[in-house]
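Two proteins, back to back. First:
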Amino acid sequence: MSFLGSLFKNPKYQAGDPRKPEEIADPDVIISPNTQLPNRIPPGQTRTRKWPVLNAHGTPEIELGSWSFEADGLVAHP
């Protein structure tokens, strides 16, 4: 299966439009008054129906035998 094929079958992908605030009947859900605004998206931004793909190539392979990690600098215990 291709990467894009798996993306569109992903349950996190929003296939339709989001529900309108008046369609949510759960009393425990807090709905901001900002959801009622006609133009909620800031200038220069667009609405997405999916999570952004930050790395389409996966995790790089690392040789753990030669890999090390060190935390130093402004830390209490390097």
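And the second protein:
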Amino acid sequence: MTARFVCSLILCANLFAQQAPQPSLTIYNENFAVVRQELPLDLNAGENQVYVNDITMHLEPDSVILRDPTGKHALQVLEQNYRADPVSESLLLSLYEGRMIDFEVSTPQGVQTVKGKVIRSGYLPHNESAMDLYGQQYYQNNMAAASEQPILEINGQLRFSLPGTPVFPALTDDTILKPRLEWQLATDRAGKFPAEFSYVTGGMTWQADYNIVAPEKGDVVDIVGWVTMDNQTGKTFENARIKLMAGDVNKIQQPGMSGRMFSQMVYGALGVAGPPVTEKAFDEYHLYTLERATTLRDRETKQVEFIRAAGVGTKQIYIYDGVKIDANRYNGWGWDNIRNDRAYGTESNPKVWVMREFRNSEANHLGMPLPKGRVRFYRRNDDGQVEFTGENVIDHTPRDETVRSYTGNAFDLAGERRRTNYIVDMGKSTATESFEIKVRNHKKEPVEVRVVEHLYRALTWDIIDHSANYSKTDGQTIEFLVAIAPGEEKTITYTAHYTW
């Protein structure tokens, strides 16, 4: 870029958009965000050329919205060009293919200049998203037309590497220093005004994390939650107003890409000054606002505490689900296959699961929608130290619903499940199956274990014999609630009769 060209751009400052004084971000948990910023414009009536450099490297060009929020100026984007290939050494080499340039070579005698002709630059002009969009044939053709290895002619000989640092005479008019939007704008009247500029960008996401700390004894816990924001957009957002959208918002993914669904947030007041995050319902989702403006730098991960609740009542429960099914072996099996395989469901799982549950209610010092996120569980030891006891992921949980999370397997509880009888009569479309389940408690205190059984031979069934009371939790599941004293073993038997 020549000095005269630079000056012409500076003199045309009335055609350039400047950085908004305070950008706004709405970050989604599926690796994208919506950016809104004020764009000061100084336009003539009719057509204007405007360049916008203050954008991210992952802007989605077809998501751009430009308007006058006051409605006084009618804006029309006649043409938009998105330039997303900033200047680099390989790009400049490609612009000088077939021409001589200087190379600075370090030698023991000092830096020397060597002239060389750029035969091939090694510049690959198309990115991975283009490969995903246009497929394998496009990729192969692109690789055939270009190679990452440059070819230089120096002193009449070809070499497949650069002899030193290339020195370019000047930037060409076709180069840019950062991603840029180039607009041809039409407006009905001249004037200066702040336009509203917004777009969708990739490279940004957020997630929720919870730390739950239980005392040495008891189940009244403290909950501390963090929201983690990650900015990989190629742009720093100074003093930004940030919102977080939570809920299962649908967004089309490009081939080869993946994303997570959106989350929600919560804050539990403890009498401190104002919650750092406030929540409100928005359409079918939840929108959370960080009350303080913050700077989110490029390639930065930032955490903000968004929940601190004390005295939350929880309950630790034990569940024994004794059936062990090999998902790989039985993948795609139908009812007839299952009924004809006598061995189906006879393998026993000896582990008793440890679960923790709590009510997300105001009465329990919570009561705001909890977003999907990772939950870490800790318990204080008798020496006062906090020890990690497990973690899992919870799903979006509305207010007044119960959160239940698996934290691991009980060390001092064991289960045993075996089938005692199986009779199938295909002519009468009936089957009868009996089981014996044992649960042992090696703890020093009594426990209550929920024994879960799945009725998997047919949709229609009856329990024709049982040694303990049970409840039906859904159309294919029953549950026995068993109290076991220290050092005791409890045995449950039942018989299921199937018809189809």
